[in-house]
Amino acid sequence: MAIRVVRLGSPRANNEGLRIGTVRRPPRGVPKSEFARQDWYDVWFPNLAPSLQTMKQAQQAKTAAEWTAFTRRYRAEMATPENAHAIALLAAMSHGSDFSVGCYCEHESHCHRSVLRELLAAAGADLAH
Questions:
Q1: What percent of the chain has pLDDT over 90?
Q2: In a 10 Å sphere around its CB, with 0-12 CB exposed, 13-18 middle and 19+ buried, how is residue 62 labelled?
Q3: What is the 8-class DSSP label of residue 13?
Q4: Pairing state of beta strands 99-103 and 3-7?
């Protein structure tokens, strides 16, 4: 049992389980009825997405210092009680079921999901490799 961190829209892995979209907005031009069938996500959970301003900061980050500023800001957002509880819940669930969390970004290394992976690991999540 484990959490996979995935790129939304990519083909699903075997035994991936429920796919959770941790994105601010649904995919453009895709009917809601097609989200799961087209491998976007089964459940939308924007609570774990960066706020609009923080997301813009990530998209504009060109230097290591700018990326570090983004990660600090996103981590602060995820430290609020509501978000910290959500991360703890997902971490606990990872010990009994397979599921995935993801975002649209092409490269995880320049995406909030890289930070989310670290936050889940720190909360004791069982993460798939």
A1: 97
A2: exposed
A3: P
A4: parallel
Number of residues that make up the chain? 129
pLDDT digits (tens, 9 = 90+) for 31-60: 999 999 999 999 999 999 999 999 999 999
Q: How far apart are CA 66 and CA 75, in angstroms?
A: 14
State the CB neighbour count (10 A cutoff) for residue 76.
Answer: 11
Phi-psi region of 5 (alpha: psi -120 to 50; beta: other; left: phi over 0): beta
pTM listed for this prediction: 0.92
Residue type, 93: M
Between CA 5 and CA 74 the distance in angstroms is 17
